[in-house]
């Protein structure tokens, strides 16, 4: 394919300044490679954090929230202020009433994938004189396992006996180690209501999250209700799994219309951790942009210097019929070629770095370094590099397009 005269002139300029062209392209290469590499780390860490979080936390949780006590009497006159001394959180039941009807209403929403009842029990687990403090989830096995894949975290035993054996319990790896428990051993649990039961260990799980493994246990929902001295219809939580977890905040406002209880999405309950991820996700592109900006100034300087050196050549081209648009095309093409070469090299190096980091094993519980390269990142990196390169070449090219050949020839 024969190139147009404009592109041939642009290539000639570049080939006569190989060293300067290489330096300018390297600037773009470093910027794009860093953009791909750092953003892949941010995406990978964010994905890993979500995955770890959803091992035990629902997308949306519905529960009865503690409330501050209110004045016993309110004033009808605006000038009078009711006085309440030492207001405190009311000590009332944390149960959800009419939970079955509420669960049916929520499950009928098109964005809801699953609703599961839970009964949370604060308790002590004891083996002989050794005891640990923990939290047990009273579950319906089929629904809880579908939501959190409990069976997939088991190191030994099975979660299924919980569905038919009221005295069965599945405990975390940390609890088993601290209490020296194995499969089929008996463990004593004492709830915050003072109710005690002897349960049989039918499973031991590991989520690779130490806090969970050291304190979490699962048991039949009926057993949890008995430990709290509650009837079979009373639960403490409804867990909701939605089709798009990233929109859980919006979905929670929709669900709130169906109930007076507190509806909390996972973004709200983990706002601090998400804020840290957001800060990291904001800083990383800014650093890459700064490097690309420096590279753009390098391209700008090279094009600007070339135009200053080629004033006579530009005047001759315009005298031979090249218009302003042709001159701008020549120098923007030079910038584009340098930017294209730098961008392609940056994409290649960034991909290689991500591949190398993906194979770095950093040990449990994380395993291999969480890094994730997405196709959209390559596309945005390419567009970013090309846009900066064209911008860096356009402004000096526009200046060259305004050259008056008569003025140049008179000098």
TrEMBL record:
GO terms for cellular component: plasma membrane protein complex. Keywords: Cell membrane, Membrane, Transmembrane, Transmembrane helix. Residues 286-405 form the ABC3 transporter permease C-terminal domain. It is a multi-pass membrane protein. It comes from the Bacteria. Its main location: membrane. It is found in: Cell membrane. The chain crosses the membrane at residues 21-45, 283-303, 336-357, 377-395. One of its GO terms (biological process) is lipoprotein localization to outer membrane. Residues 21-257 form the MacB-like periplasmic core domain. Belongs to the ABC-4 integral membrane protein family. LolC/E subfamily. This is ABC transporter permease. It comes from Xanthocytophaga agilis.
């Amino acid at each position: 394919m024969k190139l147009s005269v404009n592109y041939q002139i642009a290539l000639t300029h570049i080939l006569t300044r190989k060293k300067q062209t290489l330096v300018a392209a390297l600037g773009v290469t470093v910027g794009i490679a860093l953009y791909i590499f750092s953003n892949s780390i941010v995406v990978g860490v964010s994905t890993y954090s979500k995955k770890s979080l959803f091992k035990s936390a629902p997308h949306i949780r519905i529960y009865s929230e503690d409330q501050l006590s209110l004045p016993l009497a309110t004033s009808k006159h605006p000038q009078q202020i009711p006085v309440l001394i030492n207001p405190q959180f009311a000590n009332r039941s944390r149960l959800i009433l009419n939970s079955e009807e509420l669960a049916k209403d929520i499950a009928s929403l098109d964005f809801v994938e699953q609703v599961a009842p839970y009964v949370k029990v604060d308790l002590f687990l004891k083996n002989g004189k050794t005891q640990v403090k923990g939290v047990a989830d009273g579950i319906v096995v089929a629904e809880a396992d579908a939501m959190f894949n409990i069976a997939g975290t088991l190191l030994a035993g099975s979660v299924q006996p919980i569905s038919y054996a009221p005295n069965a319990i599945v405990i975390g790896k940390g609890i088993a180690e601290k209490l020296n428990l194995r499969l089929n051993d008996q463990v004593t649990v004492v709830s915050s209501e003072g109710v005690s039961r002897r349960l049989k260990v039918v499973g031991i799980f590991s989520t690779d999250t130490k806090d969970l493994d050291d304190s979490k246990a699962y048991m039949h929902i009926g057993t949890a209700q008995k430990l709290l001295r509650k009837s079979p219809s009373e639960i403490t939580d409804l867990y909701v799994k939605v089709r798009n977890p990233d929109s859980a905040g919006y979905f929670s406002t929709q669900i709130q219309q169906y109930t007076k209880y507190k509806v909390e999405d996972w973004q709200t309950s983990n706002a601090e951790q998400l804020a840290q991820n957001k800060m990291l996700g904001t800083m990383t592109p800014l650093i890459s942009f700064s490097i690309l900006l420096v590279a753009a100034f390098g391209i700008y300087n090279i094009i600007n210097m070339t135009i200053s050196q080629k004033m006579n050549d530009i005047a001759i081209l315009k005298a031979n019929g090249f218009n302003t648009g042709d001159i701008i095309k020549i120098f923007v093409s030079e910038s584009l070629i340098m930017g294209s070469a730098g961008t392609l090299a940056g994409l290649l190096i960034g991909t290689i770095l991500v591949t190398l980091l993906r194979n770095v094993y950093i040990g449990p519980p994380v395993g291999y370094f969480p890094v994730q390269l997405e196709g959209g990142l390559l596309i945005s990196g390419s567009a970013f590099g090309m846009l900066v390169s064209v911008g860096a070449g356009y402004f000096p090219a526009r200046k060259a397009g305004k050259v008056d050949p008569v003025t140049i020839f008179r000098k």
